Amino acid sequence: MKKSLFGFVTFLLISALAGCGGGGKTAETDRVAGEPKPAVSPGPTVETVDIPFKIGIMTGTVSQGEDEFRAAEMISRKYPGHVEHVTYPDNFMNEQETTISQLTSLAADPEVKVIVASQAVPGSVAALRKIREARPDIKIGFMEPHEDPKVVNAAADISIQPDQVARGRTIIEKARTMGVKTFIHYSFPRHMSQELIARRRDEMKKTAGEMGIDFRFVTAPDPMAEGGLPATQQFVLEDIPREVAQFGTQTAFFSTNCGMMDPMIRQILATGAYFPEQCCPSPTHGYPTALGISIPPEKAGDFAYISEQNRLKIAEAGMSGHFSTWAAPEVIVATRAMVDLLVDSELGKADYKDSGVVAEYLSRTAGVPVTVARYDSTSGNSYLILIDSIYY
Fold first, then answer.
1. What's the mean pLDDT when you consider all of the chain?
2. Is 389 helix (H, G, I), strand (E, B) or coil?
3. Consecutive H or E run containing 292
4. N or C: which end of the chain has fewer CB within 10 A?
């Protein structure tokens, strides 16, 4: 992956983005419609598998969601000639009909037997229902669904997203391990209206209280409001030094917005504060761009290598122990594992309704343990996941 492809935030500076959440998760970015995708590197070699049907995948564009787009590329290389890949619109909140059209177009091909939406942005449930009317034989999976989790649980064959409520505890536990005394949570009303994001915030506040950490919620500008992402990023650049000046360097920062990651990492590195986890935990989310790391094409998708480069840069700055993330990008892990699981299920080799099997596929893909829990223990097939953490 070339350095420019990791320059995620650079693309966003000319657009309005509204970050990460989950299930409830929102990663909303407005860019110019029809914006050409940057050239892509071939990425790491993967095994190839021949199957007697096709797979349909919908992801964001590179600028909208690089990890999910890369996951689709990896899947296309694994199942050559058997993958149809479409993208949802960058301005998906205002173009839900386009999302519906993109997903339903995949089902128009009678050879398609598996469809995965990553991310399942608004409109995906409506598309699923239309597909079911004409093609009840298709297995449909959602990665990081944005719509009502109860509705998704009842509709999709399988859905996977980070366990946001559990993260409310695990992120604060990491902060305590780092020696943090104050925890700053950035967000804005639109994100806080999302069920799981709000519940995660509440769990963070509760856990912080139990651990003697001063939890403070700070309202940041919404990237989809007037001023867009530049105003949001400028706020972060100015506010982190203010917070550190007031509360000291033993202050940790968290945000629900993807576009804040780059400036947050830069300012935390400059001020000596702490960064337990991104909104979308991954070695690639914010770190390479903020740290000025160029990833050679042959190392694209090599997360151990990318993490080591992150660690070295942070160590050079004398900030070892101040940063953490998940060992692998949950978007790539879950998307690839979901496709493999549904393909094997169609071939009669696996049961996607067995939580143990789901955990096996996820852990194998991640290369590290993945904790899996059902969203509803009594019905549906929605899973909430946590991937092992690493520290820089």
1. 87
2. strand
3. none
4. C
